[in-house]
């Protein structure tokens, strides 16, 4: 969307903006309809990854803005040297987008990590349940909920996110501020 010119580009961008207005839970009936038709069923990691990545309108918009901030002179010089569109993307644009890909990965991971509605509806096998479903089980005891145990489990649940953030902090910091200074 950011480098190539094609018919329907304006309408595609408008569709992405409109898609961002709807919550992922609105697509649940359609997702369940497709899931029941699949031969391998819903209880596998591949299906869950596909569903979670399906709501990526925000990520596409974020990447589009980042790529628009890259200097077009890099593309033009590669075209002068005889590079194709695929080579420009693979050899120039993709390596430069690593910081933003790190940001998108982190945001997508956080969104998937804390997803409750889709995981409750899609995953039926107890061994496939996500962490949020385990946290919910602490509250299923009604009046006798042990809030101390629930709070401790919630804090423990943030440890993987904190470790992930520390490991990709460099990418997140550079990706979020990249393109913020106009030259």
Automatic annotation (TrEMBL):
Instruction: Give an example GO cellular component term for this record.
Output: plasma membrane
Molecular-function GO terms, alphabetical: ABC-type maltose transporter activity
Q: Name one Pfam family in it.
A: BPD_transp_1
Q: What GO terms in the biological process aspect are recorded for it?
A: maltodextrin transmembrane transport
Membrane topology term: Multi-pass membrane protein
| Keywords on record | Cell membrane, Membrane, Sugar transport, Transmembrane, Transmembrane helix, Transport
Q: What are the transmembrane regions?
A: 12-32, 44-62, 100-123, 147-166
Subcellular location as annotated: Cell membrane
**Carries keyword Ribonucleoprotein?**
no
Give all residue intervals belonging to the ABC transmembrane type-1 domain: 1-168
Record flagged with keyword Transmembrane: yes
CDD domains, from UniProt? Answer: TM_PBP2
Family (UniProt): Belongs to the binding-protein-dependent transport system permease family. MalFG subfamily.
The name on file for this protein is: ABC transporter permease subunit
Source organism of this protein record: Clostridium perfringens
């Amino acid at each position: 969307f950011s480098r190539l010119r094609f018919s329907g580009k304006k309408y595609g961008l408008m569709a992405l903006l409109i898609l961002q207005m709807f919550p992922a839970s609105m697509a649940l009936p359609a997702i369940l309809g497709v899931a029941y038709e699949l031969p391998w069923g819903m209880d596998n990691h591949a299906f869950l990854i596909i569903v979670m990545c399906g709501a990526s309108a925000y990520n596409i918009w974020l990447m589009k803005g980042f790529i628009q901030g890259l200097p077009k002179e890099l593309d033009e010089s590669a075209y002068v040297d005889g590079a194709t569109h695929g080579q420009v993307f693979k050899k120039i644009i993709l390596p430069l987008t690593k910081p933003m890909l790190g940001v998108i990965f982190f945001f997508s991971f956080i969104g998937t990590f804390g997803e409750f509605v889709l995981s409750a509806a899609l995953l039926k096998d107890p061994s496939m349940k996500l962490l949020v479903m385990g946290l919910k089980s602490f509250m299923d005891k009604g009046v006798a909920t042990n809030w101390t145990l629930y709070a401790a489990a919630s804090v423990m649940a943030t440890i993987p996110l904190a470790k992930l953030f520390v490991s990709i902090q460099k990418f997140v910091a550079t990706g979020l501020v990249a393109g913020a200074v106009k030259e």
